[in-house]
Amino acid sequence: NAGVTQTPKFRILKIGQSMTLQCTQDMNHNYMYWYRQDPGMGLKLIYYSVGAGITDKGEVPNGYNVSRSTTEDFPLRLELAAPSQTSVYFCASTLYQTGPYGYTFGSGTRLTVV
Amino acid sequence: AQKITQTQPGMFVQEKEAVTLDCTYDTSDQSYGLFWYKQPSSGEMIFLIYQGSYDEQNATEGRYSLNFQKARKSANLVISASQLGDSAMYFCAMREVTNTGNQFYFGTGTSLTVIP
After folding, report:
1. What average pLDDT does the segment B3-29 reach?
2. Which site among B23, B41, B47 would you substitute to test the A interface, given the most A Cβ atoms closer than 10 Å to its Cβ?
3. Tell me, what DSSP letter sits at residue A84?
4. What are the beta bridge partners of residue A55?
5. What pLDDT, in 10s, does the model give residues B48-89?
6. What are the chain B neighbours of A33 within 8 Å (beta carbons)?
7. CA angle B3, B9, B14 (to 5 degrees)
8. Which of B104, B105, B108, B110 should we substitute to test contact with A (largest number of A Cβ atoms within 10 Å)?
């Protein structure tokens, strides 16, 4: 039972480079989310998806793009990386958006932009 | 205004003692959900406990209980009989219904250290 799998776990990027953070879940959850966690801070929502083919912006979407071609996969694309994007990125999913259903989180991707 | 406020950046508790982690929230919605998550040093986020805004009884999950005071808009986490493995960051979160769907808001966290 893998849950939510994120790759890579660590990455160093140079300013201006691009990369894709991968997120896969095997729980058949419709709802998926990308968050970033800056040092000493809580999580901020970047993008979310309520199902395959449907995505929407969260609180801090600038500099990022997402796609959701399947229920399982929700990759996050960083274009033209900037030092301000240095953060820990979490992917999460949930079966329902109501009731006592918390998110299942991936283990995170620690990204450093230099 | 902050949606979720956690005013204790760091807390210490003696092993086997109880500890309360504070959380206040801000919403004008009638229907919302409150959550607590644990983040150990390994980095993963672990769901601990949930309280719905219409739930009249405080939620409990094993050694975790949520002290829900709706009028005060507070949702404090109580950990009873602290264990060394409880040392971690703890995040309070609120799920709010918006016109574009549900939104989750997280606090800045409280770092709990359990002292042997």
Report:
1. 96
2. B47
3. G
4. A49
5. 999 999 988 999 999 999 999 999 999 999 999 999 999 999
6. 104
7. 130
8. B104
